[in-house]
TrEMBL record:
Keyword annotations from UniProtKB, A to Z: Signal
The organism's place on the tree of life at top rank: Bacteria
Keyword Signal in annotation: yes
Native species: Treponema primitia (strain ATCC BAA-887 / DSM 12427 / ZAS-2)
Name of the featured protein: Capsule assembly Wzi family protein
Signal sequence range: 1-22
InterPro entries, A to Z: Wzi_sf
Length: 621
C-alpha cells in the first residue's frame, strides 16, 4: 500500500472517530410538522435564520429545536409560553434516537456499535404504512368519484462515524386516482400553423386535475410508471393510475456534515424545496416537484452568508412507453443559490438554474460557475433561469416578501403585454397569531406568466434528429411553482398545533388559469406550450391579455384538515395517527368581451362545484 493511500485512510479514520456526539444526517421529509414549527420559530426570532435549501437533515432540525427551547424567555416578542414549551418538548419526543433493539412504540430495530476505539456505526430498520381514501361529489355533473392510496414503506437508516449518514426508503403502493380527458390542445398557437423549419406543432391531450383531490394538491408518489394490477409486465405499464394500479418508489440518500455544520453535503433522490419564503411557496424548486437523484452541498461560513448548489438527473414522464417517452427527454438540472441574512430582520437570496440535455458539461456541475452566464461560452442549447427572493420581518410580529423568477425576457418590449416576457412573481406575508401555540397565517399573491417554465424543443448536436424536450419539468410535473403557466393565485393559509398530538390547518385559494384546450384556448397555458421562435421580437403578434384573451378557469377552494396522533391512557403517543381534509371547490370559466368578463357554461367549458373529503391513517408515521 502506497504512503499516499495510507495517509488518506488515516485522515478518513480520524474524521470518523473524532469524539463528538453522533447525530444522523439523513433528511427529514418535507411535509413533516417540524418544518412548520421551525418556520414559526424563525418568524418569532426563536432561532437563527435557517438555510433555504430543504429538506433539512435531522441533526439540523434537532439543533434548531434545542435553540428554540433555550430561547423561551429571552425575547421581547414571540417568546415561548409555558404551554408552548411543554407542548414542544412532548412534540419532539418521537424525533429522538430509537432504543437499541426493538422499539415497539416506534416500530424500529436499532443496532449501534459505539465501543471505545471503534468507528461509530449504527443502523435502524423499520416500516411505515399510510392508507387514505378520497372522494368528491360534483353537483352539476351529478357524479361521485373516489380514489385511494395504500403505501407500505420499509426503510433502513444509519450512521457511519459521527459525520456521515445513509438511508434507503422503499415505497410500495396500491393506488387509484381518476381523471378525465377535457380536450385537445396544440403546443404551438394555432395561428402559426404547422411550425417553421425544425419546429413541429403537436396535438396533445389535456387532462383534468385528479377528480378525487383538491386542484393542484395531488402529488405523485410512484417512480416512472405504474402497472395495471392485472398485468405486471411491459404491456401493463401506465403513466397514470386511472384504474387500480400498483406502483413503487425508491429514495436512497447519503449525507454528511463537517466543521460543526458549516459544510453539509448530500447525494440522493428526494423531494426538495429551495428558496421558499413560506412552506410550498418556492418559484424555483418547489416541494410539489417530483424527486430526482442529485448531488448537493451547502456552505455557511458565517451566520449571515450561505451558498447552496445541486446538480441532478431529471426523469421522463411515461406517456408513450419506457423507450419512446425518454427518447426525447434526457435532461439534467443544476441550481446554485447565495443567501444573505441580517439577523432575523432581513433575508435575500439569488441564483440561477439550468435544465440542460445530458452530456459531460463541467460548467454546470462546477458550483462556482454561473449557470446563466456559462451558456454564453458553450452555445444556446439549454433552458436557463434567474431568480431572487427578498424578505423583511420584525421578529415576533410578521414578515413581508417578494419572490421573482425570470425565464426569458426582452426589456425592449412591454413585459406585461408581450408573450416574450416569461416570468413569475410572488408577494406574500406571514404573521404569527398570539395565544394559539405555533400558529401563523400566510397571505400571498402569485402570478405565472404565459410560457413561463416552458421551452421550445430543439434538435441538439449530440442527439441526432430528435426534437428534445427542455421544459422546466421533471417526470411531467413542474419544478417550480405548482401552478402551470398563465395562472395566478390568491392564497390564505392558517396552521397551528392544537396539542403535542394534533395539528390543524385552514386554507382558501382563488386560482385562475388560461384554458389549454378548446375553441377559446389561450396560448402559453401548458408546460408543453412552445413559443414560436420567428416572432419573439415582433410587436404585432404574440401578445397576452390575462383573463381577456380566451377562456379562463376560476377555482375557489376552501378546505380544512387536521392530523391527530392517538395517545394511550398514560399520555404516551401510540404508533397510530389519523388525518382528514374536507372542503369545497367552486369552478367556472369566463371569457373576455372587451373590458368585461362573462361567465360561460358549455359542454366544452362547464361549471363544476363539488364537495371533497380525504380520510386516512398512518401506522408509525
Amino acid at each position: 500500500m502506497s504512503r499516499r493511500v495510507q495517509l488518506v485512510l488515516v485522515c478518513f479514520t480520524l474524521v470518523l472517530t473524532m469524539p463528538l456526539m453522533a447525530q444522523t444526517h439523513v433528511s427529514l421529509p418535507l411535509g413533516d410538522p417540524v418544518y412548520h414549527i421551525l418556520e414559526v420559530a424563525e418568524l418569532r426570532g426563536l432561532c437563527d435564520p435557517l438555510p433555504k435549501a430543504k429538506p433539512y437533515s435531522r441533526s439540523v432540525a434537532i439543533s434548531a429545536a434545542e435553540k428554540i427551547l433555550s430561547s423561551r424567555s429571552s425575547l421581547r416578542f414571540g417568546g415561548l409560553s409555558d404551554k408552548e414549551y411543554q407542548l414542544l418538548e412532548k412534540f419532539l419526543e418521537p424525533y429522538g434516537k430509537a432504543d437499541a433493539g426493538f422499539d415497539r412504540w416506534k416500530g424500529t430495530y436499532r443496532f449501534e456499535n459505539a465501543a471505545e476505539g471503534k468507528i461509530h456505526l449504527s443502523a435502524e430498520m423499520g416500516a411505515k404504512n399510510e392508507t387514505s381514501v378520497s372522494g368528491a361529489y360534483y353537483f352539476q355533473q351529478d357524479e361521485a368519484v373516489f380514489g385511494e392510496e395504500w403505501w407500505f414503506t420499509p426503510y433502513v437508516v444509519g450512521d457511519l462515524g459521527n459525520f456521515f449518514s445513509w438511508g434507503f426508503i422503499l415505497n410500495g403502493g396500491i393506488l387509484y386516482s381518476p381523471r378525465e380527458q377535457v380536450g385537445i390542445f396544440q403546443t404551438y398557437h394555432s395561428e402559426f400553423g404547422e411550425g417553421h423549419d425544425n419546429y413541429i406543432n403537436r396535438e396533445m391531450i389535456a387532462y383534468s386535475q385528479p377528480l378525487a383531490h383538491f386542484p393542484y394538491s395531488y402529488q405523485k408518489r410512484w417512480d416512472g410508471f405504474v402497472w395495471n394490477y392485472r398485468d405486471i409486465s411491459n404491456s401493463g405499464q401506465l403513466g397514470w393510475p386511472e384504474g387500480l394500479c400498483i406502483g413503487y418508489s425508491m429514495l436512497p440518500e447519503i449525507g454528511g456534515s463537517l466543521f460543526d455544520g458549516i459544510f453539509t453535503m448530500r447525494g440522493g433522490r428526494m423531494f426538495r424545496e429551495w428558496g421558499a419564503m413560506s412552506e410550498g411557496s418556492s418559484l424555483i424548486l418547489n416541494q410539489s416537484a417530483q424527486p430526482f437523484l442529485g448531488l448537493e452541498a451547502t456552505v455557511s461560513p458565517f451566520k449571515w452568508l450561505g451558498f447552496s448548489t445541486i446538480t441532478g438527473i431529471l426523469e421522463y414522464y411515461d406517456e408513450a412507453g419506457i423507450i419512446d417517452s425518454p427518447s426525447t427527454n434526457q435532461n439534467a438540472f443544476s441550481l446554485s443559490m447565495v443567501e444573505i441574512n441580517y439577523k432575523n430582520y432581513f433575508h435575500f437570496d439569488f441564483g440561477s438554474a439550468a435544465v440542460w440535455p445530458k452530456r459531460f458539461e463541467l460548467g454546470y456541475i462546477f458550483p462556482l460557475t454561473s449557470n446563466f452566464f456559462y451558456q454564453n461560452n458553450i452555445g444556446d442549447f439549454d433552458n436557463m433561469s434567474l431568480f431572487f427572493d427578498i424578505k423583511g420581518q420584525y421578529p415576533g410580529l410578521a414578515n413581508l416578501w417578494l419572490s421573482f423568477y425570470l425565464d426569458e425576457i426582452n426589456p425592449e418590449l412591454d413585459i406585461f403585454e408581450m408573450d416574450r416576457s416569461m416570468f413569475a412573481f410572488q408577494v406574500g406575508s406571514t404573521a404569527q397569531i398570539p395565544l394559539l401555540p405555533f400558529a401563523s397565517i400566510t397571505l400571498s399573491y402569485t402570478k405565472v406568466e404565459p410560457y413561463c417554465y416552458t421551452h421550445t424543443r430543439q434538435i441538439l448536436p449530440w442527439y441526432g434528429e430528435n426534437l428534445m424536450e427542455q421544459a422546466y419539468t421533471n417526470n411531467g410535473e413542474g419544478l417550480g411553482y405548482y401552478l402551470p403557466p398563465n395562472s395566478d393565485e390568491i392564497l390564505v393559509r392558517f396552521k397551528t398545533l392544537l396539542s403535542a398530538y394534533t395539528t390543524a390547518h385552514f386554507q382558501y385559494q382563488m386560482i385562475r388559469h388560461g384554458a389549454e384546450y378548446g375553441s377559446a384556448a389561450v396560448d402559453g397555458s401548458s408546460y408543453l406550450s412552445e413559443l414560436d421562435p420567428s416572432g419573439r421580437s415582433t410587436k404585432a403578434i404574440l401578445r397576452k391579455d390575462f383573463l381577456h384573451d380566451g377562456a379562463y378557469q376560476w377555482m375557489h377552494i376552501i378546505k380544512a384538515g387536521a392530523e391527530h396522533s392517538i395517545s394511550s391512557d398514560d399520555g404516551k403517543r401510540t404508533p397510530l395517527q389519523v388525518f382528514f381534509e374536507a372542503g369545497v371547490v367552486l369552478s367556472y370559466f369566463t371569457k373576455g368581451n372587451g373590458n368585461s368578463l362573462s361567465i360561460i357554461d358549455t359542454d366544452e367549458y362547464p361549471k363544476s362545484n363539488g364537495l371533497l373529503l380525504t380520510v386516512g391513517f398512518k401506522i408509525y408515521p
